[in-house]
Amino acid sequence: MEVINKKNEIVKTMMNVEYYPALLNEEVALEKTTKVPLLSIAALGTAFATLPEAFRTITQTIETGGTAGYYKAIFPDGVVGELVKAKDGTGFRGLIQGANGQFVGQPVFMPAVGSKVTMSTVIPFDPLTLVIAVALISIEKKLDDILETQQEILEFLKQKEKSKLRGNLNVLEDVLNNYKYNWDNEKYKINKHIHVQEIKRDAEQSIVFYRERIVKKINKKINNLLFIHHDQDVKGKLEEVQAELKEYQLALYLFAFSTFLELMLLENFDSAYLDSAAHKIEDYSYQYRELYTKCYNQIEDYAKSSINSSLLGGLATINKFAGDAVAKIPFVSDSQIDEALIEASNQLGKQCSKKTELTMEKFQSNQSSCVSPFVENINTVNRLYNQPMELLFDQENIYLSLSVS
């Protein structure tokens, strides 16, 4: 009963919509609106297939009921005239008067019955359905945009044989793909919410766990006893930290994904609740980017200070110094020896920088936390549900524009 009352309250709130006639002389900046193709809504599934029809004018036939105590006068076939008025003007008599003023017959009085009236109207739409449709279309588009990152995550899971994490990701994708067919199925939503909640809890625990592991790893110096390190040491450190960051990145992705799905399954669109969910994801994302930056800077310093890089850098400095010295010697300075030495110095310097860049390129795939699509979509749902909204449509699209307060 509580669930039904909650659902009714949501629908009641969402139906608080005012309709205004279109102002044809007013230009609308459609590029500033959110465009939702009607075909995209219909493609979501049967639950949304009728939504585009809500933006069409239709013709309805309405049958009106009869009223007890009322009768209608039926004239005999071929008789033309009108009912005779009573002398006091309060009604009509049961006589038919012809055009020449003579009585031409009597009507038959029959009880008044309902009649059918044809009228044109516009079918109203359920805003809750529209909000859910926009949310699904938006998140699917955003996930397509980061498909490459998703593939990298899946490839990483396969390599590391992380079957449980792969299973969790598959569960979330399955819920997203099938939610559009079951968004009004309470049993489905309750069942899937339990699974999503478990994945969210596990993901949050993993976020804390891997963050602590990474902090310990970057605080541990390379070859602390010798104070020197080789490129191979840098590579080992990079691979070690990168693997942990990928786990951290995946945990954050699963947490954001499950948070978004939980909101949709619960259909709790309270503004404070949505803000809290979005801010929590953003806080975790900020912590991730902050730690990534710290790891990146430290490994870059290691790469630049390795004994291999130091040798290249030292040779470059020696060559440049020798070239400058030769250039100052009379007569010899006119030769190409100084130019050759300086050019060799520049090439060695470039080689050293290039080696560092190649090392860091391997690390940059961990830069993004991959959660922005979920945060943006939660904020979109919040605006659609909790702020005044202008709704425009044509034959192909619906245009959503938030009113400026």
Structural category: alpha+beta
Oligomer kind: single chain
Tell me roughly what share of residues is in helical segments: 55-70%
The rough form would be described as rod-shaped
Low-confidence stretches: 10-25, 224-229, 307-338, 344-352
> Termini distance?
37 Å
Largest sheet: 3 strands, antiparallel
Estimated radius of gyration:
38 Å
Strand content: 5-15%
Question: Number of helix segments?
Answer: 12
| Topology pattern, helix = H, strand = E | HEHHEEEEEEEHHHHHHHHHEE
Overall residue-averaged pLDDT value: 69
| Number of DSSP strand runs | 10
| Strand order of the biggest β-sheet | 1-10-9
Structure in a nutshell:
The chain contains 12 helices and 10 strands. It has helices spanning 2-14, 38-42, 46-49, 127-145, 147-159, 163-182, 186-219, 231-266, 271-305, 307-328, 337-361, 372-386; strands at 34-37, 57-63, 71-74, 82-85, 92-97, 103-105, 108-111, 116-122, 389-393, 397-402.
